[in-house]
């Protein structure tokens, strides 16, 4: 058993006045950008306003999408950049920024390799909604991708001696008379002051935990619960906006269909549970949707039930392939039945209906033909190995597709489409890549792909100066 890794943020007494590059945010995009910049010989710093490190990356559960990887070939999956591009474009309603999408689909495999080079192995694969191939990479322990990635990237940050300050909030981006970014102003709440840098990378996440901002752009979502960590309040978007950055797709907010919210805290039940074979049923025990349709469509189907959510149904075989269930069970979110009769009785379902639903599904899996709802993926195993499990879920605010406009070099763009000199952005803070619906597994991919690109492009920018 590996010893538990504990990361200690850098003491504020060690804060210097100048760094080559200031990275705002300690999620996967920020840490990847800082590591890449460091390996190119720059001296970066990571500033995180929260005490807890890792941002929304901690909440990610399914995996990291990529096509044409060696990992896929080892699992006998032959994929192509073009299919990955096409399915992401289709999933996003054709509204994706195609410049970003092209770069994304063609650099995901390299990002998997880059992680492997840093001993961060994503050598298992699964599938998420809206995809036809298994291209969602995850660790062979089947652990949730987010916590795994945060821990492993922090390990790299520590190894490289990259300073990472927690509880330090950036309140302003500073510029010279030509409008070139020269650094930030930051505060601990008690002390504040300027820090200078040759470039700034915004990796501060989206605004899924900011009720006012959500209500401004999507009044229909007012009061809906969120899966986001409390720091996802759109601060970075506002910082960029203050310098004239263009915002795109701000009304495109993804609601995740499967979130357990009967407790004070909302817990996202990752798509991998459905990707490994779980089905969704209504309160009568009937299926009502292709569970691996896009998130937008599955959410709409659950909403149309008007039953305050639905239930995920799965068995021990599926549970063994979706390790996150152990955590869900440990905090009391999982109903367990020794038989389908037992499970139906706990949930108040008609037992015969539930048994018939599961029997029909098992036949669909055996025949590889879901004539009822046309599901074609996540059909590798049926629901036949006791005990049987159920989790009550309902849709919740999950991801903000909108944000700052960038080009494929991660340069932040102003309203005229011109790059704001010295300002870069990566991760959920960026808008445009996902169109009107993000495919599961694409957000983690985005953080590493564009985090690396930001680190590389900052290196170019500083060396051209």
UniProtKB/TrEMBL annotation:
Cofactors: FAD
Gene3D superfamilies xrefs: FAD/NAD(P)-binding domain, Succinate dehydrogenase/fumarate reductase flavoprotein, catalytic domain
FAD-dependent oxidoreductase 2 FAD-binding domain segment(s): 20-444
One Pfam family recorded for the sequence: FAD_binding_2
Domain of life the protein comes from: Bacteria
GO molecular function: FMN binding; steroid dehydrogenase activity, acting on the CH-CH group of donors
Alphabetized InterPro entries for the sequence: FAD-dep_OxRdtase_2_FAD-bd, FAD-oxidoreductase_2, FAD/NAD-bd_sf, Flavocytochrome_c, Succ_DH/fumarate_Rdtase_cat_sf
Keywords annotated in UniProt: FAD, Flavoprotein, Oxidoreductase
Family, as annotated: Belongs to the FAD-dependent oxidoreductase 2 family. FRD/SDH subfamily.
Record's protein name: Fumarate reductase flavoprotein subunit
Organism: Secundilactobacillus silagincola
